[in-house]
Amino acid sequence: MGRWEPNARGRLEQAAIELYIERGYEQTTVAEIAKRAGLTERTFFRHFADKREVLFWGSGALRDHLVNAVAAAPDSAAPIDAIAGAVESVGAMFQERRESARQRQTVIAANAELRERELIKLASLSAALADTLRRRGVANPAASLAAEAGIAVFKIAFEQWISDPGEPDMSQLVRESFDELKAVMAGK
Questions:
Q1: CA 59 to CA 42: how far, in whole Å?
Q2: CA–CA gap between residue 42 and residue 170 (Å, rounded)
């Protein structure tokens, strides 16, 4: 039977995204997700706290990656450069998941509750980055400004990446967006 096949989390995630796109997030139940994945509701709840978490379960790993990258930046790196390097390094993580990221964003964009959750996630990432900069000795408001700017660049590059019909490189889009930010700050 299907429930004994490997990768239950991945199967549940794929089933949920398909159903959210077909029926809408609000109209989809956990029971329907589990059934589509060939699993039980109990298995669903072993992997996800609720049906919203299917879309946001990777937030912790993303936060950890960004925080670790900022913490590992050379001591001589300016705060914005430490943030830029961290955000750029996320591009490789995302590159192989472009289609699923695009589908996920379609679902989120169609639901106010999910858009709010996405904004909370981004604010949490910014706070974690600012805390990391403060631990590196960067005072406020510089730590908060650099972190907020980094998350803004990430958001804009991500939106470009998923909406571009070609095969753009996410890391390159991040670099270009940071260059644009620097040009704006220089008054160009």
A1: 23
A2: 36
Is the whole-model pTM more than 0.85? Answer: yes
What does each C-alpha distance from 7 to 55, 77, 142, 152 come to in angstroms?
17, 40, 43, 33
Please report which residue ranges of the chain form alpha helices under DSSP H: 8-23, 30-37, 41-47, 53-56, 59-72, 79-95, 98-109, 112-135, 142-163, 170-185
Distance CA 154, CA 162 (A): 12
User: What CA–CA distances, in Å, run from 166 to 46, 96, 161?
Assistant: 37, 14, 9
Q: What is the pLDDT of residues 142-184, one digit of tens each?
A: 999 999 999 999 999 999 999 988 888 999 999 999 999 989 9
